[in-house]
Structure formats: structure tokens, C-alpha cells
Fold each of these.
Amino acid sequence: MNSSTSWRPSEIIIHSQVRDDPATIFFLQQSPDVPVKYIDSGISTAVVAASEILAGCGSGMLDKVIAGKRVVFIAPATQAVDQFTMPDDRMLCPHFDRLKLASNGCFYQCDWCYLKLTYRANQPYITIRVQHDEIKRQIQKRLRESALPIMFNSGELADSLSLEHLTGAMRAFIPFFGQSGNGYLFLLTKSDNVDCILDLPHNGHSIVTWSMNNEDVSRKYEIGAPSFERRIEAAYKVQQAGYPLRVRIDPVVPFDGWQSAYAGTVARIFQKIAPDRITLGTLRFEEGFYKMRRSIFTTGRELPQMMKKIMPMFEPMIIRGSKKPKVGKYSYTEDKRVEIFDFMIREIRKHSGCTIALCKESANVWNQLGMDLSQCRCVCQYDHADMRR
């Protein structure tokens, strides 16, 4: 058993409505020595109140973030499918459908993960949704509503594969999408937990994307996640099994000597695998995340110190969609982002003609780089561009 399949929670809380669900039973069979509690409510306050681990952790934000990763709540399949539209009108992002098999669904402690802000206070625990047959009905209903193929993103609120040894979710949904006609499953992961999906009949309808970064960056700031090399090896296995393969390099971090380091990262990717798309991104923070940067990073002072060093390069991006403008995200200045993206694109082009896109970027940055936004093909899209401006 490797480290990716050895992780178990320290506490399991189960909604009584799903105690006999096959996926619940499977999860418990994989976690035979973990304490279990049953509750009759799915509201977050009830889950937190039932958790001895959350009750016993410290009062600090980081205490909750770390403790919550040890607690799993197994929940009904309520609203497991919904649609995402980027709320910030200056940062363009494809509209996409989310498949919420899990929320806060990852046991890694990556320092820049926005889920820390999203779930930090009321729902710091990992939520796993079962009732797979009901989720499939929700997917089929959504497919009937659309004349176009739909990609369902399972990696927006979770790592799509890190918990697979406990949930069996991809073993249920990859074959389902393989027979779905116009439905496609998008997996986003840092995990190397792939052996269990290699022989599944995917029919090209499950697209697996790895989030990759420079080895030093991964080791320092993506705590608990498999190394860059382990991700590369896992991606190679999946591509050999015939799955469409994509890569996301996000965030690109401009530390001292970043150009030569990331040139090596890009070269290593193409030595081993051949992704058909790559999406690039830079560090960006919600306003609340930025304000709490000293209290929720697992690496202690290291990332806050790095941020302090690069803060002169950051500026707020303003949301103008409401009556009163407010800060949306903190990001590098536009000039710095263009510099980073220009370098990365040139490095990728030394090895491949694959499609390149930018994650949650402005039209102006796309234009400065000579990229045609109308032809955007992000890793999380099927083939048609659906950009909300």
C-alpha cells in the first residue's frame, strides 16, 4: 500500500439517511478502525457539534483547517450537480457544470488552496456525497437540457482522485460517462492514486488533468501531496490507458531563479507525457484569504514571508458587477502576469504545439499575449468555448 492509498480519516460522521447506502458501506469497509457517529441532520453546525476532533482542536483558524482534514462527513446527494459562472467580470473563465462528489474533498494542505477560505469556519471537514444512482439521475437530467456536450467538473471542490481508495466514486462514474453519449467527466488531481481506474471502460469520455508545479514549489507549499515526479508517473500510466490527458500549471510562482526552474519543469513534463492542453495561472487570492494569510498557511511563516517580498507586485482586481465596486482578487500586476505567461508559453512551444489557455485571466492579458480569446480551450472545457464576459 503506497502513501496515496494509506490515508484514512480519524473520524467519520454519517447522515442517518445514507447509513445503508452501498458507497457508505464501502467507505466503512476501507476504514474499519475509524470511530463512526450517525446524525439526523446535514447542516454544518450539527456536523461540527458531533465531531470530537473539531471540538477538541484549538480556536485558531489554522487549527480548524488542519483538524477538519481529519474528519469526513458522508452526506446525501443533495444538489450534487450545479453550474458555475465566474462572478468577477474582469477575470474570464469558462462557464462549466460542477459534479460535487465531494466538497473540501482533499486531505492535502496546499498553502494557496482557496478551499481553506471557503470552508474554514463552518465546514472545515471533508464532505463525501454518496447515493450514486441519484447523482447519475441528476447528471442525466442536465444532459437532457443541453443540445451541446457537457463536461462535468469533479475537481472544482475536491481532488478527483485523492480519496478514490475510500469512495470508489470514479469507478462508478467513469464507466457511466463512457456510455453517456454527450456527457464528459473532468478529473483534476495532484494524486497518484490511479491504479484503480486504469482498466475502466472510459471510452474517451473521462479527461484527466494533473495540477503540476515546480518540484521545489510543490515540496514547500503543497503539503502532503505527491511529488512532481510521482504525478508525472501517474499521468503517464493514465495516458497509456488511453485517457485524454491535460496539465494545469497553477500557480506559477516567480521566486528567485524561477525561469530556469520552470523551464526544467516544462521539459520534464514533455519528456514523459503528451498533454493535449495546458492551462497556466498565477498566484491570486480572494480578499479574505489575503487578509488571513498569516493565520491559515500550514508552512508557518515561509509563504507569508515570500508574499511580503512579492506584495509590491500585487494589486486588487475590482468586481464591477454590483452596485458598489468591491475588491475581487489580489493578483500580480498585469505587466508581471504578462511576463510570467509569455515565458511559460515560449517554454511550452519549445516542446509542443498543444493548446494553451490562461486560468481566470483578463481579456487584456490574453490580447497582450496575442492569444485569441474566442478560441479559448481551457483544460476544464470540452471543445466549445463558452466564455462569460
Amino acid sequence: MNQAVEPAILQSTPSLIQRHRRALLTGASLATLLGLGLFAGYWWQWGRFLEETDDAYVRADWVAVSPRIAGYVAQVLVEDNQPVKAGDVLVQLDDRDFIEQLRSSEAKLQQARAAATARQSSLHTLDARLAEQQQRIAQAQAALHSNEAEAHRARLDYLRYRDLVDQQIATRERLETASAGQAKALAAVTEARAQVARQQAQCQVLQARRQQAQARIAESQARVGEAQANLALARNALNDTAIRAPFDGVVGQRKVRRQQYVMPGLPLLAVVPVEQAYVIANYKETQLQHMAPGQSVDIAVDSFAGQRWRGQVESIAPGSGAVFALLPPDNATGNFTKIVQRFPVKIRLVADEVNGPAILPGMSVIATVDTRPARQQDSSHGG
């Protein structure tokens, strides 16, 4: 009996295995189809609008801080990797010589102003003398007019007495007296004219002196201006002994040391505006068709696994990296191999994302730009 049952069981076992296999294959096929459908739906709804590149890095417009004047370093007030604020003193140069230059410039300015004041006073004195001389000229001219009137009256008297003498009405003595009066009046007119000429000549001398005084005043004012300029330069030089941070940031590449002699333009250290960092992503030219400023960007930083940042496309470079290369390729010579070009895209971090972990220049990131129209982006973010 047992021997008869065993072949039946053995015959039914393969059929059960086959049914299980078919069920598994059917389930796997359905799962695969479902996964493909979900992926296709995702790609149609979102995926086809996303442009991703891992050729992206964090950048910042850092500045190499250099002195504007030459001198010895008196103090280095910052350490490597130290945060600083705009206006903080980073390096202090020895300012003793510059203080003396400032004092010398101030003294020279005072001397120039004193000389200008003295020459201005001399001009005022000349103006007063000129005004007095004008009065003297007016008085001399008035005296001339009076003498001319007296000479005219004396001539009329002489002519009248001459007629009377001819008519034997007046005596010759009377005519001689009138003639003497006329001669005296004419002499007085001549003297008055000479006096007017002398006063006018003196006025011309004073006017010439006034012009010379004005020229000296202009020269003094020029010296005052030069002294003021030298004083301003001395003040600027003294202020430049304190080398300050141009903006908020972090100190890097600190090369300066105490007692070092530095020259203008020599890089002493760098200030990196970490909080103003941005991303430069190099996208292929085939990815730029629907890309435009203002589109949202998802940013993943290699240094911070699992964390995401949001950004916006700020601008797209006007040329590929090859265009601005030191030695741009010349495709008109030799064999040509077409290479897909990459264009730098500047991505600005959204303000509310900056307060996360510090993203430092040089970090590698993966940038994904959502090229959908703004309306669809807003609806997806709202959902």
C-alpha cells in the first residue's frame, strides 16, 4: 500500500513546483511592469525636466589682502581660519614714520596758510590805498575843473578890459591886472592838470602792485592746496598702516609674519566670504535648452551626505569653458573630433539655506536644476 502511494506523491510534486514558479514569475513580471510604470510616470512628470551634473563646485569671491604702502609689520592680529568682520584690523604696520610725516605736513599747511593770510592782508591794504588814491584823483580833477572855470573867467575879464581900454573907458593898468590874473589862472590849470596826471600815475602804480599781490595770493593758495593734498596723503598713508578686512569672511593663506618688510601689492593673507558662497556647475550644452535664470536647484554636497540645499540659477556663462581657456582649441586645423562642450552656470544659494552647515569653497556638489515652468514648480512645491 505504501509503495503505491509514494509514486503518486512523487508525480504530484513537480506540478506544484511548476505552479509556484509560474506564480513567482507572474508576480515578478507584474512588479517589474508596475515599477516601470511608476518610473515612466515619474520621468514624464518630473524626471525629464531635471538636469543633473556632478561637475560642480562651491566658489566664493575671495580677496588677497595686500598693503598699499611699504613698511615693517608691527602686529599680526588674526590667526589662520579666524572669522573676521568688515573693517577689522588684520595687520598693523609700524606707523612711527607716518605719524612724523603727518605732523610735518600739518606744520607746512599752517605755514602756507599764514603766508596766504599775510598776502591777503597786503592786498586789503593796497585796496584801501587804491580807494584813497581814487579820492585824491577825484579831488585833483575837481580842482582842475575849478581852475579851468577860473581861467575862463579871467580870459573873459581880460577880453572885456581890452575892449574897454580900446574905448578909453578903462585904464591900461586895469588891463595889465586882468592879463596877470589870466596868466595866473592858466598856470593854475597847468598845475592842476599835472596834479591829476601825478595822481593817476600813482593809481596805476598801485594797480600794478595789486596785480602782483593777486598773483602772489594765487601762488600762496596753490601752495595751500598742495600742502592740503600732502596732508591728505599723509593721513591716508597713516590710515593705510592698519590693514583691514574688506568684508565679512574667514582668514586663509596667512603668509605675513611680525617684523616682516612688506611692499605694496604683496599678498599677506586672504579673506574668504564663506557666507556668500555660490555654486558653479558645468553643464553640457545639450542640457541648456530649457535652462534659464530663476529656476530652482537641488544641491547635494559630498561632504554632508544626506543633506540637501536649495538654490536658484543666477546666470549662464556667455561662452563655454573652452572659449575662455588660455589656449582655446583651433578646430580649423588637423583632425576634428566633436566634443560636447560644458557651460558654467552660476547658482545662488537661497537665503534661508545659508544658515545650515558651512559650505566651503572648493567642495564638490551635485546640482540638479528643475527646468519645468515656474507654474508647475510652484504647484509641486505646494503639494
